[in-house]
Design a protein that fits this description.
By secondary structure, the chain is an alpha+beta fold. It has two domains: 2-119, no CATH class; 141-193, no CATH class. 39% of the residues lie in helices and 18% in strands. The protein contains seven helices and six strands. The protein has helices at 2-5, 24-32, 72-77, 107-130, 141-164, 171-180, 188-193, and strands spanning 14-17, 36-40, 47-52, 61-69, 82-89, 94-100. It has a six-stranded mixed beta sheet with strand order 1-2-6-5-4-3, with helices on both faces. The radius of gyration is 25 Å and the shape is elongated.
């Protein structure tokens, strides 16, 4: 959360975050700066309904409201009205409550924006599982972006090899097998189709020169 307090975004950015990161002082600052945000509401949030917006009976939107916080601390931190959208999650059989300062978008769009956050979760899960990325080597903005772009390039290469192969590799299995064979010489395209049949090659006696003479 301390890192989030230092973040600044361009005007009209949309920030999506889990309810564990909700800080109404931070959300108030972003709203003042012209930054839009979508998050989940905590179950113990105290509020008062100011206005009810119409919802379609044929959609999964249960409620669309503008509310004011009534908790002593939260009311002091965020005095403006907040939009509260309640959605029925048919897959998990539960209600999801979203908070946002977005005014012009439909309630279903607000829910869809939050749903896209899950794609980011899946991305980092894939990095951790397939590329063994457990922690970032550096934590400043440039270091994190460099590591993410490097990971994206590695994932793209893995997907390309997966598509070129004539056998059904899972991404995690392919990454593990490549990791085991990094220091061996093999004919790559043949190895992709028959990883246990392609023999090792002897390395060249003379290494290639960076600048040929």
């Amino acid at each position: 959360m301390k890192v989030a307090q230092k973040l600044d975004f361009p005007v009209d950015s949309i920030v999506v975050m889990d309810k564990g990161y909700v800080d109404f002082t931070l959300l108030a600052r972003w709203s003042f700066q012209g930054v839009w945000w979508v998050t989940r509401a905590k179950t113990n949030m105290a509020y008062q309904v100011v206005k009810k917006l119409p919802v379609s009976q044929n959609s999964n939107i249960l409620q669309d409201q503008w509310v004011r916080l009534t908790g002593f601390v939260s009311q002091e931190a965020y005095s403006k009205e907040i939009r509260r959208v309640v959605v029925w999650d048919a897959q998990q059989k539960r209600e999801l409550v979203f908070l946002t300062n977005l005014k012009s978008l439909a309630a279903s769009t607000v829910a869809a924006i939050y749903k896209e956050r899950w794609q980011i979760e899946l991305f980092f899960k894939a990095l951790k599982q397939n590329l063994r990325v457990k922690t970032f080597v550096g934590t400043n903005e440039n270091a994190v972006q460099t590591q993410i772009w490097t990971a994206l390039i590695a994932m793209l290469l893995l997907k390309f090899l997966q598509l070129k192969s004539q056998i059904s590799w899972s991404l995690s299995h392919l990454a593990a097998m490549l990791r085991m064979n990094l220091l061996t010489y093999r004919e790559l395209w043949a190895w992709l189709d028959a990883p246990f049949l392609v023999a090792r090659l002897e390395p060249w006696e003379k290494q290639m020169e960076l600048i040929p003479t």
